[in-house]
Amino acid sequence: MGFTCGIIGLPNAGKSTIFNALGSARAEVANYPFCTINSNQGIVPVPDDRLQKLAKILRPEKVTPTTLEFWDIAGLVKGASRGEGLGNQFLGNIRNVDAVAHVVRCFEAENVVHVYGSVDPRRDIEIVQTELILADLQTVEKRISKATHQAKVGDKKSSAEIPFLKEVQTCLSRGLPAKGLLLPEEGQKIIHSLELLTGKPLLYVANVSEKELKERRWVSQVEALAAPEKAQVVVVCGDLEAEMAELSEEEQAEFLKEMGLTESALNQLIRVGYRLLNLITFYTTVGPELRAWTVPAGTRAPQAAGKIHTDMERGFIRAEVISLDEFVNTRSMSLAREKGLIRVEGKDYIIQDGDILHIRFHV
Ligand SMILES: Nc1nc2c(ncn2[C@@H]2O[C@H](COP(=O)(O)OP(=O)(O)O)[C@@H](O)[C@H]2O)c(=O)[nH]1
Ligand SMILES: [Mg+2]
Predict the structure, then answer these.
(1) Where are the domains of the chain?
(2) Residue 304 · residue 295 · CB < 8 Å
(3) Region 5-20: what's the mean pLDDT?
(4) The pTM is what?
């Protein structure tokens, strides 16, 4: 199962430009190509300093990073929640992603029309958010009427749901996203089952010109709107990143140095997107391959083993675990073993970010 981040925003915000340029973000993870599933779905390697550190010590034949999938979701305009433009297709696609990257236009360009006439991040964000909220309101209201009907014929579960649903309805009618709502676990579960668009983790991508990169006139507007939602803002210079995508790896590094940057904004976007999903990374070093794997925080050892191979979950015996930091300090597995740094963990062990695992299993 892959984790997906949907790129949304108004037309001509630079979504496709950023999506296409994501292919160049492989700079830090050599030899792992951007893989296009189709024109608007692509898989990118997640930049990972720790993996590079491990590779330097272990010198494996092959290094495989973990990946994140991006979707370039087209078609949001005012009225999308009522099916305007590509509204229905848009809503269907965004329902299927795990997190959302909202691209906001913060660049002026005479040759690129703005559907609403001018650069105005505040207005643009509001338009997009309003459509998402309206779509969610429809979802909740449908569920309320269904639950009310079932409660009338004596369904206790449905009548218990109604107060929570009403709370979500009130929140959305006030123009607020569902994810800000604090409900008890029972309520959270109901919300989760509704798959609300405004319940998904979200980050903003401010697509800027080189001029705006220095001035931050519009970026500061995006930041001001993001702050109360505790959402991250990644500043990307879309056309610059697209130019960079054409360069070789060495040229890219040189280019970044000239700009006074340490990494491409797209790498940052991938990193932030990954963090947003509440995922952790563990590593395996079996045979010639060093590999990073992704699981949701809170995953237990057998299920993590199941990511590698279903047989490993079924026949799970135990996991031998060392944290990446401890391994990097010792620099050798056999030395780590001698020092007793490798722990033996059972099926209830919860995987920690940065664990290096060796799974023992029956075949
Ligand atoms: N000047 C400038 N143009 C950009 C930038 N990002 C995208 N564009 C241009 O804006 C137009 C629309 O971009 P596109 O990525 O197709 O927007 P989308 O509709 O959101 O997918 C294209 O002609 C891009 O070349 C940018 O940062 N600066
Ligand atoms: Mg596009």
Answers:
(1) 4-122+199-276, 131-193, 279-361
(2) yes
(3) 92
(4) 0.88
Give the closest residue to 41 by CA, choosing from 67, 70, 18. 70
User: Would you call 44 helix, strand, or coil by DSSP?
Assistant: strand
DSSP state of 64: E
Averaged pLDDT score across all residues of the chain = 89
Name residue 319's amino acid: A
**Run of H or E including 109:** none
Nearest to 9 by CA among 131, 117, 98: 131
- The pick from 18, 70, 112 for probing ligand 1's pocket by mutation, whose C-beta has the most ligand atoms within 8 angstroms, reads 112
Pocket of ligand 1 (CB under 6 A): 9, 11-17, 107, 109, 112, 207, 209, 237-239
**Cβ distance 44 to 22 under 8 Å?**
yes
Span 4-122+199-276: which CATH code? Answer: 3.40.50.300
CATH topology for 131-193?
A: DNA polymerase; domain 1 (1.10.150)
Pull the structure tokens for residue 347. 């099926």
What confidence category does residue 75 fall into, taking pLDDT thresholds of 50, 70 and 90? Answer: low
Residue range 279-361 in CATH 2.30.30.140: no
Q: Residue 28: pLDDT band by 50, 70, 90 thresholds?
A: very low
Please list all protein residues whose beta carbon sits less than 5 angstroms from ligand 2, which is an ion.
15-16
Report how far residue 76's alpha carbon sits from residue 131's, in angstroms, rounded to the nearest whole number. Answer: 8
Residue-wise pLDDT tens digits, 81-96: 777 776 677 788 888 8
Amino acid identity of 23? G
- Ligand 1 atom with the smallest distance to the CA of 240 is 27
Q: From the CA of 103, which ligand is nearest?
A: 1
